[in-house]
Write a structure and sequence with these properties.
By secondary structure, the protein is α/β, with parallel strands linked by helices. It has 4 domains: about 130 residues, Response regulator (Rossmann fold), CATH 3.40.50.2300; about 160 residues, 3-Layer(aba) Sandwich (Rossmann fold), CATH 3.40.50; about 80 residues, Helicase, Ruva Protein, domain 3 (Orthogonal Bundle); about 60 residues, Homeodomain-like (Arc Repressor Mutant, subunit A, Orthogonal Bundle). The chain has 19 helices and 14 strands. Bound molecules: adenosine-5'-triphosphate and magnesium ion.
Length: about 450
């Protein structure tokens, strides 16, 4: 991306000198000879950075600074001050200037400041974009995600929600299966009815049956009165059976009967109870395998699995990582009373490259601890847990002397592509070239991207 720098100074020599120097560094430059002209150019919307002299005819530089800061938050202004006017510099900084440079201008120093100012602007812009996306998503559902994979999940949720069909949600631990169940219930006509959750793995086998179906007084030692089970409690609502792979054969048969006939008896009881319950089951086991081993009933499997929704692991939908990370950052920032704007580039790269075996749950925990650790306004690499951190550490390439420039270029492109998990837009951004140029070079050099296409 080519940045545009506006140089405002009434002295022609300075204006043109700076413009030329910045032009040589690859920036597009605009010149303004007074404050009025400068503001008009900024208002046209194509300026990424303003360098302004303080004393100018018509509208002063101080005025330009204040107007830009007020009207365009995030647009950096570097102020030029005359020799020995430190008060001017101080007051400019107070008014929100990014930095100041004293005349005569040291071009190396200015060029460094320009680079830094533009980087911080880019970072702030990216963080704001993410914020806006997070905000937009919040309104639709508590499930955050914009990857193609999650869009498929959302689409399935929307389609099954209005029906009574049983749904089987599968996926590794921590991918968000429970959130999917919540979303189905909340989007269904049963949303005003109860959503009852049973964590099947957490209950001893003997307890699970009475937990689900209830019991009559005296059904077993300690059963002092009649107790209604979760199926009854979920009447006219939804029952979420989490970790369905863990239930025993006896309970499997009873659940099958409820699915077929919508009725059951309480433990130790004769009376038949009729219920209207929609069932959503979840598992991180391979139930087909359990069927083969004989520990899960095939008929129950097909009854539960009328519609199946698979939530892919986070490493297969990395595009969701920045959005999720930002949402968690906001959540825990608020909880801890810390104002953290975002992640610095290295931290962001680590979050992106780490494989997340514990999926979204692990990412959430990681961001929570980063918020606790963070000392500044951005999460830095050091704030991340060591395992996550090492995935974003500096990567170097070695180019043997004797290589041609083309060979060196090929190595750098290949390695950068790998560091960006094969994402070509980001690779082009890191390398500072256009996407088209990158595509051309990949083709010319015959670079095979080892990682998937993006
Ligand atoms: N897409 C998402 N957007 C926001 N938060 C998410 C998302 N996916 C998961 N989470 C959060 O991650 C944590 C784990 O999610 P959840 O409990 O739904 O996972 P699970 O698949 O049911 O895991 P397990 O198999 O271990 O029970 C929760 O705190 C949840 O809020
Ligand atoms: Mg769960």
């Amino acid at each position: 991306m080519r940045f545009t720098v506006l140089v405002a100074d009434d002295e022609k020599n300075i204006r043109e000198g700076l413009s030329e120097a910045l032009g040589l560094e690859g920036y597009r430059t605009l010149g303004a000879s007074d404050g009025d002209e400068a503001l008009r150019m900024v208002d046209q919307g194509d300026v990424d950075l303003v360098i302004t002299d303080l004393r100018m005819p018509k509208v002063s530089g101080t005025e330009v600074l204040k107007t830009v800061v007020g009207r365009y938050p995030g647009l950096p202004v570097i102020v030029l001050t005359g020799h020995g006017t430190i008060e001017d510099a101080v007051s400019a900084m107070r008014s929100g200037a990014f930095d100041f440079v004293t005349k005569p201008v040291n071009l190396d120093h200015l060029s460094l400041l320009v680079k830094r100012a533009l980087e911080s602007r880019e970072l702030a812009r990216k963080n704001r974009e993410l914020e806006a996306e997070v905000e937009a998503q919040r309104h639709s559902s508590s499930i955050i995600g914009k990857s193609a994979e999650m869009k498929k999940v959302f689409e399935l949720v929307r389609r099954v929600a209005p029906t009574r069909a049983s749904v089987m949600v599968t996926g590794e631990s921590g991918v968000g299966k429970e959130l999917v169940a919540d979303a189905i219930h909340n989007l269904s006509p049963r949303r005003d009815g109860p959503l009852v959750k049973v964590h099947c793995a957490a209950l001893a086998e003997s307890l699970l049956e009475s937990e689900l179906f209830g019991h009559e007084k005296g059904a077993f030692t300690g059963a002092q009165g009649r107790r209604r089970g979760r199926f009854e409690l979920a009447h006219e609502g939804t029952l979420f059976l989490d970790e369905i792979g863990e239930i025993n054969q006896n309970v499997q048969i009873k659940i099958l009967r409820v699915l077929q006939e919508r009725k059951f008896e309480r433990v130790g009881g004769e009376e038949t109870v009729e219920v209207d319950v929609r069932i959503i089951a979840a598992t991180n086991r391979d139930l087909k395998e359990e069927i083969r081993k004989g520990s899960f009933r095939e008929d129950l499997y097909y009854r539960l699995n009328v519609v199946s929704i698979h939530v892919p692991p986070l490493r297969e939908r990395r595009d969701d990582i920045p959005l999720l990370a930002m949402a968690f950052l906001r959540e825990f920032g608020e909880e801890n009373g810390k104002r953290i704007e975002g992640f610095n580039p290295k931290a962001r790269l680590s979050l992106y490259s780490y494989p997340w075996p514990g999926n979204v749950r692990e990412l959430r925990n990681c961001v929570e601890s980063a918020v606790v650790m963070a000392a500044g306004g951005l999460v830095e690499l050091e704030d991340l847990p060591p395992s996550v951190r090492s995935s974003g550490e500096e990567r170097n390439v070695r180019v043997p002397v004797g290589s041609s420039l083309a060979e060196a270029e090929k190595i750098l492109i290949t390695e950068t592509l790998a560091s960006q998990a094969g994402n070509k837009s980001r690779t082009a951004e890191v390398l500072g070239i256009g996407r088209k140029t990158l595509y051309q070079k990949i083709e010319d050099y015959g670079i095979e991207s080892a990682v998937g296409e993006h």
